[in-house]
Design brief:
With about 200 residues, the chain is an alpha/beta fold. The chain folds into 2 domains: about 140 residues, HAD superfamily/HAD-like (Rossmann fold, 3-Layer(aba) Sandwich), CATH 3.40.50; about 50 residues, thrh gene product, domain 2. The protein has 9 helices and 7 strands, in the order βααααβαββαβαβαβα. Strand 2, helix 5 and strand 3 form a beta-alpha-beta unit.
């Protein structure tokens, strides 16, 4: 029995922080987990930039409201969900993800949460669990699932490598070069075919 675990940003929807970087005119905020493997370091740096510019959750949510899933993402997800169980494992936050989940047809997502002051300032963040993607995959395996995973960034590698099969999707040239053992795809049709080939 298999379950497919997918990353969210860069795989199904555009990168939220890149979109907000463009909307706010702050180029530093375009840095993502494709660039920085240490997620805690990346988020603390982001929060410092937001504080410096007086920006908070309200401004980010206004940008998220304008984001649509990547072309073909919902159709890919719908077909995948019709043939197997699917779970989205993301390092994003519930306060960011909900509008995007609505546009994707409310798939199951496990992610983290932000600590937000009454004025909208993001003061901290709470990770669901350490190494959340790998920990979740291991938990699923412990209750009898074989996992198939796909993602695009450094923080996806653990879950991709830990399961029955794993694939890079629209990843960077650097990550693909560092992990030639991982099949890498650019199109949803190719990823769907690779996943189907792994299903019992």
């Amino acid at each position: 029995m298999e379950i497919v675990c997918l990353d969210l940003e860069g795989v199904l929807v555009p990168e939220i922080w890149i979109a907000f970087s463009e909307a706010s005119g702050i180029p530093e905020l375009s840095r993502t987990t494709r660039d920085e493997p240490d997620y805690d370091k990346l988020m603390r740096w982001r929060l410092g930039i937001l504080k410096e510019h007086g920006l908070g959750l309200n401004e980010i949510q206004a940008t998220i409201a304008t984001i649509d899933p990547l072309p073909g993402a919902k159709e890919f997800l719908d077909e995948l969900r019709s043939i197997t169980q699917v779970m989205i494992l993301s390092d994003t936050f519930t306060q960011f993800a909900s509008p995007l989940m609505k546009k994707l047809g409310w798939p199951t997502i496990l992610c983290n949460s932000l600590v937000v002051a009454p004025d909208g300032e993001i003061t901290d963040f709470k990770m669901r669990i350490e190494h959340s993607k790998l920990s979740t995959v291991k938990a699923l395996q412990s209750i009898g699932y074989e996992t198939i995973a796909s993602g695009d960034s450094y923080n996806d590698l653990e879950m991709i490598q830990a399961g029955k099969a794993g694939f890079l999707f629209r990843s960077t040239e650097a990550i693909k070069a560092d992990h030639p053992e991982l099949p890498a795809f650019e199109e949803y049709g190719d990823l769907l075919a690779a996943i189907k080939a792994q299903l019992s």
